[in-house]
Amino acid sequence: MEKNNKRFKLLDALYISMMILPVVCGIVLKVLTTPVSEGISISGAKIFFTISLPVQDLPITESQVHSWLVMIAITGLCLFLTHGIKEKADTKRQHIAEWIVENTQKLVNGNMGEYFSGFAPFIAAILGLSAFSSLLALFGLYAPTSDVNVTAGWAILVFFLITYYKMKCGPLIYAKSFADPPLLAPLNIISEFATPLSMAFRHYGNVLSGSVISVLLAAGLQGLSAIIFGNLPGFLGEFPFMQIGIPAVLSIYFDVFSGILQAYIFAMLTMLYVAGAFPAEEFFRRRATINKSK
Amino acid sequence: MELAIGIILGCCALGAGIAMIAGIGPGIGEGNAVAKACEAIGRQPECKGEVTTTMLMGCAIAETTGLYALVIAILLIFVAPGRLVDILVETMEKIK
Measured between CA atoms, how close is A269 to chain B, in angstroms? Predict the structure, then answer.
């Protein structure tokens, strides 16, 4: 028992370090790679290095690396919460884990129906990855969701899922769904591609607009404090007093509230689109006839 | 040459400003949505949770058009001037 206990604590420490180390790594990487510069600038994700491939070069950017860090951190969190799990919940972490699982299951069952109850882990993964990616901005790191490539990747994944479930009754039904009023077929095809586009731009635009406004406000406050306190002697004149506290209030809205809300909306839209794409009546009618013929 | 670059920069900034007029639409739409949600909560206070989540969801979707305008404005401010100036310089060299 004693030995087991020691091993348990050691694994716990490993999982906790798996949660914390990625963030520390990100901060160290940022400190090492960002050149010292005066003033505030708005720029996209930095490119760390480029892998040359035959068709097109593959740049490894800040947003990619940061989303890997977020994935490692979430894996550590999940392992920590489910470590030492028992049939009867008696620890705090197991209660938290059960609360998360039950609520996601309830959300998925309520929005998508019983047939899609297997989607709960996927939805939870999207929700967690998106929310924690946006929250990474709280550490002063580049949020992966403010890069359109990351959110577009997720949106394309969702687009494939939608198409897969539309095809569930064969390609004929899928083709027929476009020509619902036959004259509007081109518009239906355009709206098919507008779905992932709007999902990607919605999430990216919300997070990016928050960070741009935060940066503009910080720059403005620097100028304002230079005007007000500029005449004070020495260090007091240079220190941006106005920057203390005020940007934090905006950060609560833009980084915390908006980031989590966008994660929720992305997951919600995924559920609604996938469930809406599935021709349930036709599918169950066919399955019933097949079962009967057996 | 300087005049041409100046016109490019100025027109990009103007275009970004004009693009953000699209912010009016989502503003009106979201205001309406929130007003109706307040009415609904006043009528049926027990549905507060559901009404709020549905409203936030609808607000986020109504915001999309505004965000398209924002993306265009950001492109016009941060991306377009550099590219347009590059194109101008290239064509001037070709003419010479």
Answer: 9
